[in-house]
Structures are given as C-alpha cells and as structure tokens.
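Thread: "does anyone have the structure for this chain?"

Original post by V.I.:
We have the sequence but no experimental structure in hand. Need at least a predicted one for the grant figures.
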Amino acid sequence: MKKSISIITAAVLAATALTACSGSKPAQTSAEATESTVADTATQESTGETTAAETPAELKEIVVGASPAPHAEILEAVAPVLEENGYKLVIKEYTDYVQPNLALDAGDLDANYFQHYPYLEQFNEENGTNIVSVAAVHYEPFGIYAGKTATLADIADGAKVAVPNDATNEARALLLLEAQGLIGLTEGAGLNATKADIAENPKNLNILEVEAAQIPRSLQDVDIAVINGNYAIDAGLKVADALAVEASDSEAATTYGNILAVQEGSENDEAINALVEALSSDEAKTFMETTYNGAVVPLF
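Reply from O.Q.:
Generated one for you, tokens below.
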C-alpha cells in the first residue's frame, strides 16, 4: 500500500514540473488586461498609429484659376475656411483675361475668379463657351493714374491716354474719362462705348488701346492711363494715389462686380457651394477691407 502511494505522489510531482517548464502563460487577471490595453494605446499614440476609423477623411480638391492680385490673394485667405469644410484649394494663377476662361471651358479648372459679368458675356458670345456666374464677390474701382503728366489739370493738347483694349473694359475707361470732362461720348453709348463713340475731344487726346495687363508698364510712355483695379494692385499702385476713381454710384460700379464663374451645369455642385460660402465669409470680407484700403470692395 505504501508503495502505491509513493508511485502516485511521484507522478503528480512530475506532472507539476512539466507544467512549470512549458511555454504557456498564466491567464491575465482583469486588472492585468486593462493595464495591457492602456499600454497598447500609448504605444499607438507614440508611434502615430491609428485605426481605420480614426484616420481623417482625405480633402477633396477644388482647382480655381485667378489673377494674382487680388483674386489669388483672397482665395489664399479663405483656404482655411474651405479646409474646415473638407476641401483643399488649388490656385492656378493667370496674368491675362483669356486663358482662365479657356482652361475652365476645357475642364482644367473647377472655377475661375478674375472677371466681371459683362466681360464673361462678351467672352461666351465670341468663343462659343458656356460659362456662368455663381456669385458676385467684390468690386474694384477703375482709376486714372499719372504717367508723364502729374495732374488732370496739366494735361496738354494731344496728350497720350492708355485705356484697356478689350471692349467692356475700354467702355468703362471711356466713361471714367467722360466723368472727368476730358471727353464726351455719344448719347446712349454707355457700357458699349468704343473710341468711335467719342463725340467730343477738346484736348485732342490720343487714346491708345493697350492690352489691360500691359498698361501699368506703359505709364512712363503715356501722359495718363486708365487701369483695371487688379492690375493696379499687382503693379503696386494705390487707389489713394489715383488722379480720379470711379464713383461708388456710377454705372460701372453697379455693373462690374468681380464674379466666381463655373461651367454651365456645375452651379449646384457641393464643392462650388462651399467655395461660394468661403468667398462670402466674414474672413473674406475682413481680408479685403484691411488689405486693400478701398481698392477692393466686398459685395456681400
């Protein structure tokens, strides 16, 4: 009997030794499991690892064509507003008035922001494009700037005057010259005025039609020049230094608001709605008013 008990005891001891030497781990207590989870989370945070559910959504791109100043600058100012709403703004800058519309029509842009509505109408008619306005954002008053002649009172007979050579902006320039008593236009010419509509020219002014973007560079070669607001800003000219500026209640001021334009059919796209909202935000208004000192006037 004693011999049997000894055999059983030896077997139990052997089994215990085998268990202790095996690779298995003892079960964790609930406290140990909690500590392990916390440690794993800390490791993920320190290494930058996140779960699929925690990964931020990828921003959707909106590609917008714009003149460098002020349009591209205004867009840059509202880019954070768009980012908060899930969009990354990509700005492509253009220094002329033709390519941004051609690029929009070709689908290379989602929108553009550089022109006023009369110019867009003219462009569509001449090029067979279908571009539409979705918002009027701001107004840039035209100004008459000094070249060789320092004041309007000093303009001599036969003085050279540079004006934009595209139809809508030329009319606007001629209306400003008329408002200063330098010329007289045929009755009813209004926003369709051209050089041919100059009915009175007491000083025999030599009206030179120049590509709008080139006029600031031509100042040294002319007596005075009528310059688009954005090109004046880009050239470092200030509205406060202009010899004359369009009145806020002029026909031009109520007509030539700078617009956000898109391809027809895209007017109600979510991305475009987000862009309109950003360009009419408090951030946009504050930026315009504090940056341009009257050269850019918000229309919202």
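V.I.: this helps a lot. The CA atoms of residues 145 and 219 lie 8 Å apart.
O.Q.: and Confidence is low (pLDDT under 50) at residues 1-55.
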